[in-house]
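Please predict the structure of the following assembly.
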Amino acid sequence: MRLVIALPFLWLGLFFLLPFGLVVAIALGTNNPDAVPPVDLGLSLKNFALLWSDDLYRVAWLNSLRIAATSTAICLLLGYPMAYAIARSAPARRPLLLMLVVLPFWTSFLIRVYAWMGLLSSNGLLNTFLKATGLVDNPGTILGTEWAVHLGIVYAYLPFMVLPLYGALEKLDNTLLEAAADLGAPPATAFLTVTLPLSLPGVIAGCLLVFIPAVGEFVIPDLLGGTGTLMIGKVLWDEFFLNSDWPLAAAVAVCLLVLLVGPMVLFQRQQARSLERA
Amino acid sequence: MAADAIVRLEGLRKSYGALAAVDGIDLEIRRGELFALLGPSGCGKTTLLRLLAGFEQPDAGRVLIDGQDMTGVPAYRRPVNMMFQSYALFPHMDVAANVAYGLQRDGVAKDEIAHRVAEVLAQVRLSELGKRKPSQLSGGQRQRVALARALVKRPKLLLLDEPLAALDRKLRESTRFELVRLQEELGVTFVMVTHDQEEAMSMASRLAVMDKGRIAQAGDAHEIYEHPRSRLVAGFIGIANILPGEGGTGWLALRPEKIGLHAERPATDRAVRGEVVQVAYEGDRSHYHVAVDGLPVMQVVAMNTDHAVRPRWARGDAVWLGWSDAAAQRLEE
């Protein structure tokens, strides 16, 4: 019995706390390209100081937060009507519609992002189509812009928005909407005063599930974005693999985690509360 | 339309696919009465209520409320409020906000809302609980919030869908009187749907028994109990012995309390011999099943008014059953 309780803690200790301790230790060290691994351990805060003082990192942080925030907003605007439509559809059809939402997961994430590269490049499918149909004579290239990064994030994370929203909307008792109508609320008012507030737990869960991973997203800005769209995940990758500056990369990782602890705690508490209510 | 009619239904029909839930109903409900729609589940009573509320629109026919044609008017524009069977309280609002919701939709001024909410909460004895969430209330309290929320708009018609079904038995009894008291005090017309004939009989000024989307009979409780028109009505309201009519044509309904049990042949209009096959002692009364040659098993109820400790008749006893011709009600179908 004790072993069963201890197991998750053991797991967390072995695969989260221990590696995280290593990352913190590296972040406090200094870069030494000649050593293997290229770190001299120590207790220096200069890597963190650099993150704070160098504009490059500040810009990357702000970009990440901004792009994650707008992508989350777009996911919400697209995902809410989708989740609403699925929750209102005939019960027999819902499994099919939900399966369609998660269907993209059947293909590797990386392959799907590469597919977007093929679609969005200057001689890609989209531009070929635009030119062939004569809709646009000389289309610009979306690939390599912030537009492409937004598109990629929204595409990749939309299911994480739709599923919790569906969960909240599906539980909504239809007689509450009838009660609202009975008391004089036209459909739009009933939506704003009853449906929306009652689906708020789903909205919060969905937004956090999209926002948290989107802030640290690396693959999408790397493959779809250009040099102009600097995101913190990509900076981390570059510091580690291009510059071999392990301590700086580790410092970025620690900061990213600290930054996301806030929203994650929020998510946890909100989940716990909705569990209590159920 | 009669001067005192607040609701008039004309040739109302509503089908779901091939099923006619409401199959041609003409009905008038009078101003200020407590009207009950009674029937087994699937008889169309709930659909009829939803047609009155405006949640459903009829395939044919008209709904007139206080002289105005409400056919096709959506629920949110009808001067009608409903108390839902599940109460349908908004879980994210406290009691006061639930009650205020309908007034806010009408754009009533803030202090007027506060005043009317306080007033109606006092009427249902919930003044102390305005700040509670519905989840923090007992079933009976929730029922009263639902009632207050529907009454606060002073509707021309209050619809109640199985208002007592979700309460336990004790509470049901007291709430019955409470509802009737409120209805008389406020003078609002109540239309109540119930499957419980006792509830309908004891509360309603008039009632309609429904069957297969039609009204089998409408009238006051006494009329329907003493003069049922059909075997269905006789069987649904109380207990009835259904006997073949004179010369084998038609049917008669005979209530169990109208039959006397005797040791010797009684001098009543009718007298038959039988044998007691079952006795249920219920304290104030005893319920007998008596087998009679050529008739279905007769149900007889006798009040235990004498001081005998045991029921007077036991299983296996030979008895005489007697009743007057006037007690047997001729049925039309």
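Chain B touches chain A at residues 53-55, 74-77, 80-82, 84, 86, 88-92, 101-102, 105-106, 149-150, 153 (CB under 8 Å). Chain B has eight helices and 18 strands.
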